Amino acid sequence: SQELEQSPQSLIVQEGKNLTINCTSSKTLYGLYWYKQKYGEGLIFLMMLQKGGEEKSHEKITAKLDEKKQQSSLHITASQPSHAGIYLCGASRGGSQGNLIFGKGTKLSVKP
Amino acid sequence: IAGITQAPTSQILAAGRRMTLRCTQDMRHNAMYWYRQDLGLGLRLIHYSNTAGTTGKGEVPDGYSVSRANTDDFPLTLASAVPSQTSVYFCASSRNIQETQYFGPGTRLLVL
After folding, report:
1. What is the CATH number of domain A4-111?
2. How confident is the model at residue B94 (pLDDT cuts 50, 70, 90)?
């Protein structure tokens, strides 16, 4: 079965610093989703990548999918306290279920 | 209503009791999902529905049942709660299967 490994598990950065979170799959990804979760709240959709080499940006967050479609990265530029939370990558299983499998998450803390 | 709502926000339940978690979406999405989130295990699919009138089992369906009488509502029932069902439950929906999923705020359930 497809597994998603996220690294690092947790990250503490100083406000204003850049950071990268990685998501690696044991199988080719056919739809890679990035979500953000604040403690005690639901998941907020950030971006979805499908094509090898695809890159998307929203405000200061950029997500990339490698050419082989087995690894994705999420890069935050000039981090702010509002970026703090848990970042989850999810991948489509395919088939009739349509559900996502998720990585364990990366907990990001941003020190002011 | 905007997006997905879940009720209750949290609940403490005695073991053996029956409980229904409610989920309603106003986006006219065809597909809906129930996940549970547990520390160290991440998000796992309980049940799903590709369209009104149909449901399917996910990764961890035992002890849970669902129904999809209409497009908007997707209730999750615990027939006889057990302590291992203590978790945070998230409902999600997508326009169709294999499309971006949007999550509700979650229900925190404690079974004693």
Report:
1. 2.60.40.10
2. very high
B17 min Cα distance to partner chain A (Å): 25
Domain B4-111 has CATH 2.60.120.260: no
Residue with the bigger pLDDT between B40 and A32: it is A32
Interchain pair B58, A97: CB under 8 A: yes
Provide the 3-class DSSP secondary structure of residue B85.
helix
User: What residue segments make up the domains of chain A, in order of their start?
Assistant: 4-111
Across the interface, which of B56, B99, B100 has its CB nearest the CB of A97?
B56
Strand, coil or helix: B83: helix
Q: Which amino acid is at A98?
A: G
Cβ contacts of A48 on chain B, cutoff 8 Å: 100
Query: pLDDT tens for residues A7-54?
Result: 999 999 999 999 999 999 988 887 899 999 998 789 999 999 988 899
